[in-house]
């Protein structure tokens, strides 16, 4: 399984009184990586909405392993896990400049229509885009 890599730098306003990146920013960095990946396959929020659907996050997990500090460049490594339903399960590793994992995460997005009705299978156009993303990541 391959990962899509996005680089982010810890900004001064993201550091807390302990001089480490505040834990909530890891979720935002994970979202940046996820959005960069799905955008490559016409699956970002605007593109999915144009097709009449939304994909809200329905589950989110983070495990913090090491602190990140001001001005460090982090690598956000994003991949997906194949699912049987109209959901996307993203796996994320955030790695520091020293190569050590700082955090790992998982986010599940469910496909719903504009009325908020949960979809159990994705329409062919969206399935084709997901298929290209899975092939790219060798999933």
Helices and strands in order:
Layout: E1 4-9, H1 24-39, H2 45-50, E2 53-54, E3 57-64, E4 73-81, E5 87-95, E6 101-110, E7 112-113, H3 124-136
Antiparallel strand pairs: 1-4, 2-7, 3-6, 4-5, 5-6
Question: How would you sum up this structure in a few lines?
Answer:
The chain is of the alpha+beta class.
Q: Can you describe this structure?
A:
With about 140 residues, the protein is α+β, with helices and mostly antiparallel strands. It is about 25% helix and about 35% strand. It is built from three helices and seven strands. The strands form two sheets. Strands 1-4-5-6-3 form a five-stranded antiparallel sheet, with helices on one face. Strands 2-7 form a two-stranded antiparallel sheet. Strand 4 and strand 5 form a beta hairpin. The radius of gyration is 16 Å and the shape is elongated. About 25% of the residues are buried.
What CATH calls the topology is Thiol Ester Dehydrase, Chain A
- The whole-number mean of residue pLDDT values reads 96
Approximate shape: elongated
CATH architectural grouping: Roll
Largest sheet, described in full? 5 strands, antiparallel
Strand content: 25-35%
Radius of gyration: 16 Å
Share of helical residues: 25-40%
- Separation, N- and C-terminal Cα atoms: 6 Å
Helix and strand pattern: EHHEEEEEEH
CATH class: Alpha Beta
Number of strands: 7
At the fourth level of CATH, the homologous superfamily is Hotdog Thioesterase
Structural classification: alpha+beta
- Tally the helices: 3
Low-confidence stretches: none
